[in-house]
Design a protein that fits this description.
Helix content: under 10%
Radius of gyration: 29 Å
Structural class: mainly beta
Number of helices: 2
Distance between the termini: 91 Å
Number of strands: 38
Length: 494
């Protein structure tokens, strides 16, 4: 082989080697640079997307939702050209791991390591999000069960507390990520067969003043994973997909539920003497809709009962002079009476509680308000009540804001529904506590006078939850929130 040919072969070989070396160097340096500054880990954590930049080492971030009650499902959505470990457990793109947390605490962090041969990043997730309001418990309940609450004012958050007032589950979003969304009425449901579900109201935002906390009902499975959303079903008076209110929701089975909604309608049946517009009055009617196996099996509307107009004590401008959307009835709570499976419904703007037949749609009885049928004295009647429950002994409990007197109270009433008489009446007051909205009360246990109270929007103070033994006059647990933050309805479930 002549020298020129040898030189050509050596030159080509050298060029190829140089190209390979340069390519490898560029590829490797590109991977490092991307890992260091450009890459972002994308996770789905308990059904919520969480983006974690890798630009800063030892950075600490919030998750949208975490739980210490069940394992947390964490899925890595993207490839970053490196090994990823969560608390020492490897995870690959497109795969899911279950992470058990013993507690949710500001001092407990989830460690995420990301690295390759040349570089490493360590970042952290807080187990207790900074997007939750500061929750300060004192004392502890000696009765089983956890407390479920959603923030009505002051953020987009819901949470579950154990009987020491410690957070064991939450969903919380920053204002930027919430984008006007908020939550209401977080609760637990247990079917007759023992199946556990959770639900909450996802509030869309502006509803043009029609209804309360308008949006959709979100259904979660027993691991707090979203499995369904519920809006109105198609009927003669409702369109499929129309929003529901966040005042209340009853889940009987996976394919059987009761929702409520508000609809602006033009009516011609306002009785004379109530100042109705002669050409028709615009009112907000309350709709109750029961759906089973995707079919509407029961519907009730307040405007189908003209006698209700005259019972209203708030928001009843039937002339539409000052209001174009008077919510004259103000439905704010509904429960099923286990004794006969009919509905008991609270109408806050009528100061009235009614039982409604779930088959005939007839009003079986009215308690309190101007249409009271049980002979309540003026001192016994409610004013702006916001919560109802049935005790194990079959008594009706009412959280009465008592807007007429300014002294919020809890009522326990034993009714003779056949003869429409009151057989027993007790009231419990906490001096200095005046609830303006959202309040709730629930009797805990049998044959004891212990109540879980959600104070809602208080006139003074920042107490959010109390559990009180009225036999002894002692508080068992008290939870406070920051000033300006108020819970929606609070409920305790075993």
């Amino acid at each position: 082989m002549d020298s020129s040919r040898k030189f050509l072969i050596v030159s080509i070989s050298a060029a190829v080697l140089l190209i390979i070396l340069v390519s490898c160097t560029l590829a490797y340096s590109g991977r490092d640079n991307t890992l260091m500054s450009d890459k972002t880990l994308s996770f789905e954590i308990n059904g919520f997307n969480v983006e974690l930049p890798l630009s800063e080492n030892d950075a600490v971030y919030d998750a949208v939702s975490l739980s210490s009650v069940t394992e947390n499902k964490i899925k890595l959505l993207n490839e970053v050209g490196a090994t990823v470990k969560i608390d020492g457990k490897g995870i690959g793109a497109g795969t899911t791991i279950d992470l058990k947390l013993d507690e949710l605490s500001s001092s407990e962090l989830i460690k995420i390591q990301v690295g390759n041969e040349k570089d490493e990043r360590v970042i952290y997730l807080r187990t207790l999000s900074t997007q939750l309001p500061e929750i300060i418990p004192a004392g502890a309940s000696s009765y089983d069960g956890n407390y479920f609450a959603a923030v009505a004012t002051g953020g987009a958050a819901l949470y579950e507390l154990n009987n020491q007032g410690e957070v064991v589950f939450y969903i919380a979003k920053s204002p930027e990520k919430a984008n006007g969304e908020s939550y209401r009425d977080f609760k637990k449901h247990v079917y007759e067969n023992g199946t556990v579900r959770y639900s909450y109201q996802r509030v869309y935002g502006d509803s043009n003043g029609i209804g309360y906390a308008v949006g959709e009902r979100v259904i979660l499975d027993d691991r707090y994973q979203e499995i369904d959303t519920i809006t109105l079903a198609q009927s003669e008076i409702a369109k499929a997909g129309d929003p529901v209110d966040g005042r209340d929701f009853i889940l009987i089975d996976d394919n059987h539920y009761i929702v409520e909604a508000s609809q602006l309608v033009l009516v011609q049946n306002v009785p004379d003497g109530l100042g109705a517009n002669t050409m028709g009055s615009k009112v907000v009617r309350n709709l109750i809709q029961e759906v089973k196996d995707d079919q509407v099996v029961f519907e009730f509307t307040t405007d189908s009962h003209p006698e209700f107009y005259g019972l209203s004590v708030n928001d009843h401008d039937y002339s539409n002079t000052t209001s174009q959307s008077p919510d004259y009835a103000g439905l704010n709570r509904m429960i099923i009476d286990p004794a006969d499976n009919n509905l008991i419904v609270s109408f806050g703007n009528m100061n009235t509680i009614m039982k409604i037949d779930r088959e005939t749609r007839d009003v079986i009885w009215k308690l309190s308000g101007n249409g009271d049928e049980f002979g309540m004295s003026p001192e016994q009647k409610t004013a702006g009540q916001t919560d109802l429950a049935i005790t194990a002994e079959g008594e009706l409990t009412v959280f009465d804001n008592a807007t007429s007197t300014g002294q919020t109270r809890i009522l326990k009433i034993k009714l003779d529904e056949v003869n429409k008489k009151i057989l027993g009446y007790q009231e419990y007051k906490v001096p200095g506590k005046t609830a303006l909205a959202y309040g709730s009360a629930q009797k805990i246990g049998d044959n004891i006078e212990v109540y879980t109270i959600g104070w809602g929007l208080l006139k003074d103070g920042n107490v959010a939850i109390s559990e009180i033994d009225f036999n002894t006059g002692k508080k068992l647990l008290e939870v406070t929130l920051p000033q300006g933050v108020a819970n929606d309805r609070v409920q305790k479930f075993k």
